[in-house]
């Protein structure tokens, strides 16, 4: 790595990689996602991926990079809105059941901390 690639500090004081190295690494990972996609299609597997974090934490950017090279027929992104009052009174998982993947599908849940289900109010 050249000085140009390591001059800015990244996460936990680790050096940031340069754009060229970043793009090469992302491309290799996207190839692995395409392999995963083909395996899911061939085996009729079901996969759920959950990204959860605060707004502006980078979830959307990562999901965008994942979706760049894969088929939207296999990969699907679900970003549920804030729960309604009725949904807040239900089991937390009920909101997600209808969004779970069918055979041969991968679903990515984009979950903001702000749309978490909250416990029903106590009487």
**Runs with pLDDT <50, length 5+?**
none
Helical stretch tally: 5
Q: What overall geometry do the principal axes of the alpha carbons give?
A: flat
Average pLDDT for all residues? 83
Order of helices and strands: HHEHEHHE
The span between the termini is 61 Å
Strand content: 15-25%
Strand sequence of the main sheet, in spatial order?
A: 1-3-2
Task: Briefly summarize what is shown.
The chain has 123 residues and is of the alpha/beta class. The chain has helices at 3-6, 19-43, 59-67, 85-89, 94-97, and strands at 46-53, 75-78, 105-112. The N and C termini lie far apart (61 Å).
Question: Which descriptors would you attach to this protein?
Answer:
16% strand, 5 helices, flat, alpha/beta, single chain, 123 residues
Write the layout of secondary structure elements.
Blueprint: H1 3-6, H2 19-43, E1 46-53, H3 59-67, E2 75-78, H4 85-89, H5 94-97, E3 105-112
Parallel strand pairs: 1-3, 2-3
Structure notes:
This protein is of the alpha/beta class and 123 residues long. The chain has helices spanning 3-6, 19-43, 59-67, 85-89, 94-97; strands spanning 46-53, 75-78, 105-112. It has a three-stranded parallel beta sheet with strand order 1-3-2, covered by helices on one side. The protein starts with a helix and ends in an 11-residue tail after the last strand.
